[in-house]
Design brief:
alpha+beta; Jelly Rolls; Heat Shock Protein 90; 3 domains; 4-stranded antiparallel sheet; about 50% helix; about 20% strand; disordered N terminus
């Protein structure tokens, strides 16, 4: 008899009474008969800390209600576990939430629940839970079905549209930024070909003119000196350069160089003056002076154009690097990042959207620690906040990016001088689908997405302070220990 009583006691401890079930907020409004049914079919189960309660994609067989302990919910996104909820509140639930929909949807767990500490759960089989909900709340089930499928369609359509608009805007901005250096490189390449042809032609003229090896060698030295002078000389004022070009042009005209006025600006940039001109004439002779000067001029212009092409290519490379930093396509989903680098990459991608009348001010705290984060998603946060700030200001204002350390947190702030957010609107700005923009201009998802990225995925916080003429969005991110320190200094532009 004692063995039988022991077994019955253990079974009783594995179940909750109707009165105990009523203490859970999810069941507090049920009647006695409903609670009896749940108590009969449900059971109490234990899970050890750091163990999986249920896994995303597995058949959804049970509905779990937390009785004691703490849990975390996550979803798998492109090979990365994204945390969506962490809680130790008694009564939070998960698992077969959609069992009431029956065969209308695939009955699998839509996320993974892991017990962070030793935890206990009230567990209901999915079939009994779904049947109970459909039987007890038929009207609510119809409403939930409409809400579920309608919201899923809405999210799909608006989410795709939001991503396409964002991608189009960024692509247009990047194309615009790449066009200027690419066009400059193309123009310089075309001119370079002309100067290379001119250099070869004038050298042939010099060779046909009978210059011996010694004089040709000295002419090459003049050419090398002119190129070096052009590369290292301090830039003259416009007035000084104009006077020097006039003086050299007069001397060239006196010596019979027909296109001397065209050659003078380049030769002056190479350090040519009257004394230099006399030395070249003495070396090659008056008859060979014009082709010698044209050859040196072509050489200087060739160096200038090569430098211009190098500068254009460097700018293109910098833009591509900024795009890579923005998208983080070549990085692991989570890595150690410098917030300043991410902010600068986002500014580069959005440069075409910043009106000429908007001043950008950077106030970066030097030696700010790096953080462990999802770089591409933080860039999405910066994009949403900056675009909203630009929209609020219109064509004129000041956009301020500020970073600082606040204890064990990093603060990244985006400020604008727009009209501010009305007090009656402020509590709703992070709600999904809420927008103050005209119909068709906003989906109301930007700030909601930003909030979820910062709060749910990075365990941070987003705050807003606003009054007419000054609005600040503050992103608070936790600072892990023993991470590298950045080297950015405070900059104002």
């Amino acid at each position: 008899m004692s063995g039988r009583r022991s077994t019955e006691d253990r079974e009783a401890r594995k179940r909750l009474s109707p009165a105990e079930l009523r203490t859970l907020f999810l069941f507090e409004s049920l009647n006695d008969a409903q609670l009896e049914l749940l108590a009969e079919h449900g059971r109490v189960e234990q899970r050890a800390g750091n163990s999986v309660v249920f896994a995303e994609g597995d058949p959804a067989t049970c509905f779990f209600v937390l009785l004691e302990g703490s849990v975390v919910l996550s979803r798998r996104v492109r090979g990365d576990d994204v945390e969506v909820l962490r809680s130790d509140q008694r009564g939070v639930y998960g698992g077969a939430n959609q069992s009431y929909l029956g065969d209308h949807v695939e009955q699998t767990y839509i996320n993974t629940m892991r017990a962070l500490t030793d935890s206990s759960f009230f567990v209901l089989p999915a079939a009994e839970f779904g049947a109970a909900v459909r039987t007890w709340f038929p009207m609510a089930v119809h409403l939930l079905e409409g809400l579920f499928f309608g919201l899923r369609r809405t999210n799909t359509v608006t989410g795709e549209r939001e991503r396409l608009i964002a991608l189009g805007a960024l692509s247009a901005g990047l194309t615009h930024e790449l066009n200027n250096p690419a066009a400059a490189a193309l123009r310089a390449t075309s001119a370079l070909q002309e100067h290379i042809t001119g250099t070869r032609k004038e050298f042939e003229v010099l060779a046909d003119g009978g210059l011996d090896g010694d004089r040709l060698h000295r002419l090459v030295e003049f050419q090398k000196a002119a190129v070096k002078q052009m590369a290292t000389a301090q830039q003259r004022s416009a007035l000084d350069a104009s006077d020097a070009e006039d003086e050299l042009g007069d001397r060239l005209e006196e010596r019979g160089v027909e296109d001397g006025w065209d050659l003078a600006p380049t030769l002056v940039a190479g350090g040519a003056d009257a004394t230099w001109l006399d030395s070249v004439a003495e070396t090659v002779g008056e008859e060979q002076l014009a082709p010698a000067l044209r050859w040196i001029t072509h050489s200087i212009d060739t160096e200038l154009l090569a430098a211009e092409i190098g500068d254009s290519v460097s700018r293109i490379s910098g833009l591509v690097d900024a795009a890579k930093q923005y998208s983080q396509l070549d990085r692991a989903p989570q890595q150690t990042v410098d917030v300043h680098t991410l902010l600068e990459a986002t500014l580069t991608m959005l440069r075409a959207k910043i009106p000429p009348g908007v001043t950008v001010v950077r106030q970066y705290e030097p030696d700010l620690p790096h953080i462990l984060a999802y770089g591409a998603e933080l860039n999405q946060v910066w994009t949403n906040l900056i675009v909203n700030a630009l929209y609020a200001m219109g064509d004129e204002g000041t956009l301020t990016l500020r970073t600082r350390r606040d204890g064990d947190r990093l603060l990244a702030e985006v400020g604008d001088t727009g009209p501010g957010i009305p007090p009656e609107v402020r509590p709703r700005i992070f709600e999904p689908f809420f927008t103050t923009k005209p119909v068709g201009e906003g989906t109301g998802l930007g700030l909601d997405i930003s909030y979820r990225i910062v709060v749910n995925k990075h365990h941070g916080d987003v705050r807003v302070e606003s009054r007419p003429g000054e609005t600040w969005f503050r992103v608070c991110l936790p600072l892990p220990d023993d991470l590298p320190v950045g080297t950015h200094r405070k900059i104002h532009i």
